[in-house]
């Protein structure tokens, strides 16, 4: 199984970062404006990227200000069955975010492209948490 792993450091309190990753408001500014999100285990978050399908992630773990884990139930076929986790830690006012997208069946060009896009996700998360201005899918021109 393959895994994408990335890290970024945000000049923001861990509570701000956790809220951005678990709330409709936060993920709407960071990832896509078209979504349905609730911070509760078992809830199925829905993300619409204006494709032929809705990406659905079931929340399987929530540890406040520490860890979030999603399991993909519907999306591009390469994503279905994969998991995404966000591990948070804070030191001296800097929050580290370790993003892992794991249980990929193989390393494909789509996998590589997703790795790039998860980097853009972390950039958007950083700008949202630090400056209240994320870069959701609908506002990207690249």
Account of the protein in words:
With 142 residues, the protein is α+β, with helices and mostly antiparallel strands. The protein has helices at residues 14-22, 24-30, 109-131; strands at 2-10, 34-36, 44-48, 55-63, 67-74, 83-91, 94-104. The protein has a single domain (2-135), classed as START domain (Alpha-D-Glucose-1,6-Bisphosphate, Chain A, domain 4). The chain is built from 3 helices and 7 strands, in the order βααββββββα. Helix 1 (14-22) packs across helix 2. The longest helix has 23 residues, at 109-131. Belongs to the AHA1 family. This is ATPase. Residues 11-129 form the Activator of Hsp90 ATPase homologue 1/2-like C-terminal domain.
Overall CATH class: Alpha Beta
CATH superfamily heading: START domain
- Reported CATH architecture: 2-Layer Sandwich
Helix content: 25-40%
* Proportion of residues in β-strands: 35-45%
Mean pLDDT rating: 97
What's the CATH topology label? Answer: Alpha-D-Glucose-1,6-Bisphosphate, Chain A, domain 4
Distance between the termini: 29 Å
Q: What is the CA-based Rg, rounded?
A: 14 Å
Q: Care to count the β-strands?
A: 7
Biggest sheet strand order reads 1-7-6-5-4-3-2
- Along the chain, the helix and strand elements come as EHHEEEEEEH
Overall, the morphology is globular
Report the uncertain regions.
none
Please give the largest β-sheet. Answer: 7 strands, antiparallel
| Helix/strand/pairing category | alpha+beta
Number of domains: 1
Pfam family, one: AHSA1
Family: Belongs to the AHA1 family.
Protein name: ATPase
Domain Activator of Hsp90 ATPase homologue 1/2-like C-terminal: 11-129
């Amino acid at each position: 199984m393959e895994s994408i792993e990335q890290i970024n450091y945000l000049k923001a309190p861990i509570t701000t970062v956790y809220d951005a990753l678990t709330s409709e408001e936060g993920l709407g500014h960071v990832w896509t404006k078209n979504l349905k999100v609730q911070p509760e285990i078992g809830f199925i978050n829905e993300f619409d990227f204006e494709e032929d399908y809705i990406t659905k992630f079931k929340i399987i773990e929530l540890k406040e200000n520490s860890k979030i884990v999603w399991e993909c139930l519907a999306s591009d076929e390469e994503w279905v069955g994969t998991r995404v986790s966000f591990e948070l830690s804070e030191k001296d006012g800097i929050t580290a975010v370790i993003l892992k997208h794991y249980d990929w069946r193989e390393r494909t060009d789509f996998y590589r492209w997703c790795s790039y896009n998860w980097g853009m996700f972390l950039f958007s998360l950083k700008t949202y948490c630090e400056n209240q201005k994320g870069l959701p899918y609908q506002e990207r021109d690249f």
